[in-house]
């Protein structure tokens, strides 16, 4: 269940993170002690306690602590088009780095091949060189190391489970480190993939996995394509319509903890950035971000950036978080049900109850059971690197499910059937017309 946050390695310095050769996910180098287990989000997360520490005195809701919700986009065309969504993270980083009370930003950067690591960035000129969303497993242990080694106050960019580990470590072991965090920019996160996903797509497309020099998953418009560079050239794969992509990036290739994750909308980040996947934004030419400001400071920051002409923004409501993502992403309908099932089966299950538990409508038992059976079989096949078999399976027994997903997307997002029937409330055309 390791997601590579590095909290255990901070609690027990004898640990390092390494890539598990079979599962192709990061994990600690060896078994450790109770201090390391106590901070590990693959063991448990005390969301209630952490929310109280991070947002003292603020009321939590099923969406976490929320001050404002907006749709937003960078006014800088190149930055917007290169980014994964609206280019918000880079705009925010540039704005914050220009402040006297910020000494740098700790963000994921490319090292080589598939390796990405956190780096301390102080020079604003380096911000636009940072990668977009990286969807394969990466080790984040350096983030805590950088925070400990450097004096000053820093912005930290992280996906939800990374922040869970980092804050769990800080509040139990080194509370003084809190004062070094100026602002956390969180990514909304639906899943990440083991390196098997990349091995599989390379095999399907005839790309030499061992020669990968660079990789990017997004950019060039709202959805973007997967791009893999090797000495033989650049391979581009559509993330929406390529069948092999659908096989290699099937949910069974996710880190196992993602199936149990109830914190996709990043309850612990000061400001959260995701994609605005709304029917009303589907025809825009560049990405639009969904923004959740969890405290008045971040709301004010965004309002100021808008006033200065750096952002286009429009206020929306928490309902649009649900409309933009899926219920199970926001409220954990599947994850809570799957956790119950695993516990009944005596399987290891991280202990996690988030502020969204009261809103969760648990997925039915039969669906969960079938999912688990399927997952176990698929993980076995992935371990044996039998990706072709998974391809054939998707093209045959699983095809109706895939077709249903596309049809659903077409009817809801393109034809806006639910909106026309009044089942969902849409952001008005007028509001969306400010975006490119
Ligand atoms: C694994 C993953 C899953 C996601 N799932 C969803 C989803 O289901 N729904 C949704 O709405 N949005 C999701 N997102 C967020 C979305 O893809 C965009 O990253 C987000 O909207 C920010 O876009 P941007 O244009 O502002 O940032 P960009 O300009 O693209 O900048 C991205 C920034 O994030 C950092 N970063 C990239 N990948 C990682 C990583 N793996 N760990 C830590 N930092 C990283 C980079 O250093 C960079 O600073 C996901 C992101 C990731 C990384
Ligand atoms: S999830 Fe984080 S704390 Fe737990 S084992 Fe993995 S790296 Fe260590
Ligand atoms: S879905 Fe949850 S567990 Fe998976 S990578 Fe995202 S935040 Fe981490």
How much strand content do the residues show? 15-25%
How many distinct helices? 18
Give the names of the bound compounds: flavin-adenine dinucleotide, iron/sulfur cluster
The count of strands amounts to 15
On the 0 to 100 scale, the average pLDDT is: 92
> What is the global morphology?
globular
Radius of gyration: 21 Å
Proportion in helices: 25-40%
How is this structure best described in words?
With 436 residues, the protein is α/β, with parallel strands linked by helices. The chain is 37% helix and 17% strand. The protein contains 18 helices and 15 strands. Strands 6-5-7-8-12-13-4-14 form an 8-stranded mixed beta sheet. A 3-stranded antiparallel beta sheet has the order 9-10-11, with no helix packed on it. Strand 10 and strand 11 form a beta hairpin. Helix 13 (333-344) crosses helix 14 (365-383). It is globular and about 55 Å long. The mean pLDDT is 92. One iron/sulfur cluster (SF4) is lined by residues 3, 159-161, 189-192, 255, 257-258, 261, 264.
Briefly summarize what is shown.
The protein has helices at 7-11, 34-38, 47-54, 77-82, 88-97, 141-149, 160-173, 195-205, 243-248, 296-307, 319-324, 327-331, 333-344, 365-383, 387-395, 399-414, 417-420, 429-432, and strands at residues 17-19, 26-28, 44-45, 68-74, 104-112, 115-121, 154-158, 181-187, 214-216, 225-230, 233-238, 271-275, 289-293, 311-316, 351-352. It is an alpha/beta fold and 436 residues long. The strands form 4 sheets. An 8-stranded mixed sheet has the order 6-5-7-8-12-13-4-14. Strands 9-10-11 form a 3-stranded antiparallel sheet, with no helix packed on it. The chain has a two-stranded antiparallel sheet with strand order 1-2.
């Amino acid at each position: 269940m390791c997601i590579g946050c590095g909290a255990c390695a901070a609690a027990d310095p004898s640990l390092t993170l390494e890539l598990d050769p079979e599962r192709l996910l990061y994990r600690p180098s060896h078994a450790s002690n109770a201090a390391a287990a106590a901070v590990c989000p693959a063991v448990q997360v005390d969301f209630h306690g952490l929310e109280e520490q991070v947002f003292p005195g603020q009321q939590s809701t099923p969406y976490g602590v929320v001050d404002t919700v907006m749709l937003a986009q960078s006014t800088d065309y190149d930055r917007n088009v290169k980014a994964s969504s609206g280019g918000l993270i880079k705009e925010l980083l540039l704005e914050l780095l220009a402040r006297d009370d910020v000494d740098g930003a700790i963000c994921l950067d490319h090292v080589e091949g598939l390796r990405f690591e956190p780096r301390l960035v102080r020079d604003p000129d380096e911000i636009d060189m940072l990668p977009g969303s990286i969807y394969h497993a990466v080790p984040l242990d350096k983030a805590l190391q950088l925070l400990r080694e450097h004096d000053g106050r820093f912005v930290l960019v992280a996906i939800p489970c990374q922040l869970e580990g980092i804050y769990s470590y800080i509040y139990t072991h080194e509370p003084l480190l809190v004062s070094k965090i100026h602002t956390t920019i969180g990514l909304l996160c639906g899943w990440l993939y083991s390196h098997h996903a990349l091995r599989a797509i390379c095999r399907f497309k005839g790309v030499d996995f061992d020669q990968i020099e660079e990789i990017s998953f997004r950019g060039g418009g709202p959805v973007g394509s997967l791009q893999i560079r090797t000495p033989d050239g650049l391979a581009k794969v559509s993330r929406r319509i390529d069948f092999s992509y659908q096989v290699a990036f099937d949910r069974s290739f996710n880190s196992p903890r993602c199936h149990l994750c109830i914190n996709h909308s990043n309850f612990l980040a000061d400001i959260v950035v995701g994609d605005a996947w709304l029917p009303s934004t589907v025809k825009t030419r560049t990405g639009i971000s969904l923004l959740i400001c969890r405290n008045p400071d971040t709301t004010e920051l965004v309002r100021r950036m808008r006033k200065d002409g750096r952002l286009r923004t429009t206020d929306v409501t928490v309902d649009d978080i649900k409309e933009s993502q899926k219920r199970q992403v926001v409220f954990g309908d599947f994850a809570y049900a799957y956790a119950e099932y695993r516990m009944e089966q005596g399987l290891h299950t991280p202990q996690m109850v988030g502020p969204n538990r009261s809103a969760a409508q648990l997925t039915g038992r039969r669906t969960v059971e079938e999912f688990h059976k399927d997952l176990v079989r698929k993980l076995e096949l992935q371990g044996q690197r039998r990706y072709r078999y998974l391809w054939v399976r998707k093209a045959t027994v699983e095809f109706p499910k895939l077709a249903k997903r596309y049809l659903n997307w077409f009817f809801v997002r393109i034809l806006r059937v639910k909106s026309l029937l009044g089942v969902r409330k849409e952001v008005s055309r007028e509001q969306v017309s400010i975006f490119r």
